[in-house]
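input
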Amino acid sequence: MKILVVGGAGYIGSHMLKRLQDTSHSVEVLDNLSTGFETNTLGFPFHRCDLADKDHVHSILQGGYDLVMHFASYINVGESYIDPQKYYENNVVNTMNLLNCMVDLKILNFIFSSTAAVYGEPESVPISEDQKINPVNPYGQTKAIIENVLKDYDKAYSLKSISLRYFNACGAHLDGTIGERHNPETHLIPLILQAASGRKDKIKVFGDDYPTKDGTCVRDYIHVMDLAEAHLLALEELYKKQTSEVYNIGNNQGFSVSEIIKSAEEITQKKINIEIADRRMGDPGQLVADNKKIKEKLKWSAQYSDLKTIISSAWNWEQKLLHLNS
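output
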């Protein structure tokens, strides 16, 4: 297949590229580098382009692709409350530009990075794909909108898609060459490790009074290399079977914030200072994936998503970043 990876210079996109290096697919990258790094594109043909520029997107897509993968969303839940316009413009309008160009050029296979945030406050845990979509924040709302667009575009234009609802992506590539590098960083594990390395004074824990085993939020953490493997299986399944689908990508196991901090202290051999802060708006107490569907249908399984591998790989990467920033 000839594949265009949109957002391939970012965290998850770059791990996808790394996985695609080991395949026979022909791969190119489109990214505006607003949050990504060109070094992450790993030498693949690179198109610097913003999805807001529909004419430019259209001209690039004339390169004759079989399938497009989309990793080009803004993902900061807190920021999405403060500046929803930014999120609706990029995550909805710009994604629509891409989809409309694809339909126009009859590129009818699409892999979409969705999110567990589409579920909102879950009806039950673990969360299966047939639970009601009810996002509680603008970020989740933008992803739910595109999922619904994809259903309509399948019926009207035969655009086939697989939406992958991520739980908490984390970790870094085991070879130490790429990892999480957001600016500003908002994800728990890299923030904890920045506190361990001395780049931060302390880590804020948002709420210790949730109805969980230790009062802190419980989340399902999935290693980014396992995430990339799920995408590879999904794109091959989509191309072969031409059936639109939705899958959770999670570990089917939850860890609390306190458990993550304790594990990080053990692995790094560093004391991590914490500050208990108020709960954040729209933060459910517990989000854990039911991953039976992707395991059964795509024969996927998590290989790297034990806590030790997640934190060790992220710590290895944090030490590299510390050296780069010094």
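quick obs: The chain has a mean pLDDT of 96.
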